[in-house]
Amino acid sequence: MYGENMALTVNLGTPYEAIIENLIRKGYAGTQAEAIRHALAFYERYIEEEEVRLVNKGIEDAMARIESGQAKTSSLEEVRKRQARKRCP
């Protein structure tokens, strides 16, 4: 799909059409298609940043649980020993 031209007819509705026309009037975009491309690129970056934020929050929460003693940790050696015991009957 990337690299191909995709022709779409989209009915955005009055509020969104007004936003696009305002962006064109202010010079941020030259055409409606350009304004939509900018919006999609911005949204993609936003989603990627939100994903990173959520992963970081999960890491922070996990670290807080570890530091408070609510979560048990094991050394790599302890994990290897447990795995070896599971393999040997």
Outline the structure in words.
It is a single chain. The chain has 89 residues and is mostly helical. It has one domain (14-87). Helices cover 70% and strands 0% of the residues. The protein contains three helices and no strands. It has helices at residues 14-26, 32-68, 76-87. It is elongated, with a radius of gyration of 25 Å. The N and C termini lie far apart (52 Å). The mean pLDDT is 92.
Quick take:
By secondary structure, the protein is mainly alpha-helical.
Strand content range? under 5%
H/E topology pattern: HHH
The dominant shape is: elongated
Domain count: 1
What proportion of the residues is helical, as a percent range? 55-70%
Distance between the termini: 52 Å
Which parts are unreliable, with pLDDT below 50 for 5 consecutive residues or more? none
Query: What is the residue-averaged pLDDT?
Result: 92
Features:
89 residues; mainly alpha; 3 helices; elongated
Topology:
Blueprint: H1 14-26, H2 32-68, H3 76-87
Protein name: Ribbon-helix-helix protein CopG domain-containing protein
Region (Disordered): 69-89
